[in-house]
């Protein structure tokens, strides 16, 4: 019988190391640690749920910690997993650069690390499993350009600085929008993948650039914040494209306030990371890079996506 439990770890990081382990069968158990950048984002809740479901199916123990978007806290979580001698670590980085020393230490201790949704810079992990964020950014540019009939003034809301996801989505969007010379990118501003910050940033951008006709946000949370700032202009005078395909994002697409969202499959990313962590912990060979397919959600097909 497999059970769910909650562990509270003490020590220097206190609540930083709170975990929700999925305990498997007593015999033959294998322990995996997973550090998630933030569980305040619905996207990463789905990522965690997919990972926990895979761990439960496989009968392994998965301990999940929330870094609360703090790279120092996350490095401490990785060091704690290393000291505990888990068999593998799954990491969704807060900062792709800052986490490298802790990942290197885990690797030197013989613990394989899988990077999920975002890559690690400066140290080679056992695997990186992500969506193709560059292709997703380009797809976002194409659908926004179509919504704008190939002309207009666009602003870009970037994610957290230092994350590969933000960098790659921005690069893909830049490459894609370059094919439309009548569309001008008049501002780029970080909003840290956060809805409240997205609203604040968008409010300021509207004041400085009242002629905005389009918004590309590197995740749905920022897009939803932008929609709140735009009010009844969203979906009418201003077209908004998000990224992730979260339940709230899909609802906004169905409502018409968001033109589209580049939908990832966070549950699949989480489950694939766990399944391959089990394999590599048991000495099996796994792919160095895994690209999980993305899909475009627009009003015509939004009913095909989950909205719970």
Describe the structure.
There is one protein chain. The protein is α/β, with parallel strands linked by helices. It folds into 2 domains: 153 residues, Rossmann fold (3-Layer(aba) Sandwich); 139 residues, 3-Layer(aba) Sandwich (Rossmann fold), CATH 3.40.50. Helix content is 38%, strand content 21%. It contains 9 helices and 14 strands. It has a 6-stranded parallel sheet, sandwiched between helices. A 6-stranded mixed sheet has the order 9-8-10-11-12-14, sandwiched between helices. The protein has a two-stranded antiparallel sheet with strand order 1-2. Helix 2 runs parallel beside helix 3. The longest helix has 17 residues. The N terminus is likely disordered. This is Monosaccharide ABC transporter substrate-binding protein (CUT2 family). GO terms for molecular function: carbohydrate binding. Belongs to the bacterial solute-binding protein 2 family.
What descriptive keywords fit this protein?
disordered N terminus, six-stranded mixed β-sheet, alpha/beta, single chain, 2 domains, about 300 residues, SBP_2_dom, Rossmann fold, signal, about 20% strand
Q: Helix/strand-derived class?
A: alpha/beta
The CATH class of the largest domain turns out to be Alpha Beta
β-strand amount: 15-25%
Order of the strands making up the biggest sheet: 4-3-5-6-7-13
Q: Which shape, going by the Cα principal axes?
A: elongated
**CATH 2nd-level architecture of the largest domain:** 3-Layer(aba) Sandwich
Report the strand count. 14
Summarize model confidence as the mean pLDDT: 91
Q: So, the CATH homologous superfamily of the largest domain?
A: Response regulator
Largest sheet data: 6 strands, parallel
As for the CATH topology of the largest domain, it is Rossmann fold
> What is the multimeric organization of the chains shown?
single chain
Distance between the termini: 28 Å
Low-confidence stretches: 1-18, 23-28
Radius of gyration: 20 Å
């Amino acid at each position: 019988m497999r059970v769910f439990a909650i562990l509270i770890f003490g020590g220097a990081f206190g609540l930083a190391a709170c975990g929700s382990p999925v305990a498997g069968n007593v015999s033959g158990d294998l322990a995996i640690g997973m550090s998630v950048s933030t569980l305040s984002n619905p996207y990463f809740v789905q990522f965690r749920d997919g990972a926990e479901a895979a761990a439960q199916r496989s009968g392994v123990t998965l301990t999940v910690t929330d870094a609360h978007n703090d790279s120092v806290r996350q490095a401490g979580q990785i060091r704690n997993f290393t000291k505990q001698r888990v068999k593998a670590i799954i990491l969704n980085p807060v900062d792709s650069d800052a986490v490298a020393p802790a990942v290197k230490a885990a690797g030197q201790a013989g613990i394989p690390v899988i990077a999920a949704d975002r890559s690690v810079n400066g140290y080679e992990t056992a695997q990186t499993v992500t969506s193709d964020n560059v292709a997703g950014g380009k797809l976002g540019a194409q659908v926004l350009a179509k919504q704008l009939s190939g002309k207009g003034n666009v602003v870009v809301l970037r994610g957290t600085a230092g994350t590969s996801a933000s960098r790659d989505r921005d690069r893909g969007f830049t490459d894609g929008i370059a094919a439309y010379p009548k569309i001008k990118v008049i501002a780029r501003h970080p909003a840290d993948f956060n809805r409240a910050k997205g609203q604040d940033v968008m409010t300021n951008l509207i004041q400085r650039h009242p002629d905005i006709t389009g918004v590309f946000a590197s995740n749905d949370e920022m897009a939803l914040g932008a929609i709140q700032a735009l009010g009844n202009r969203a979906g009418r005078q201003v077209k908004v494209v998000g990224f992730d395909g979260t339940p709230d994002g899909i609802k906004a697409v169905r409502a018409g306030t968001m033109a589209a969202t580049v939908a990832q499959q966070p549950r699949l990313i989480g489950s694939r990371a766990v399944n391959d962590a089990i394999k590599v912990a048991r000495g099996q060979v796994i792919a160095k890079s895994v690209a999980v397919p993305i899909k475009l959600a627009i009003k015509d097909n939004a009913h095909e996506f989950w909205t719970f």
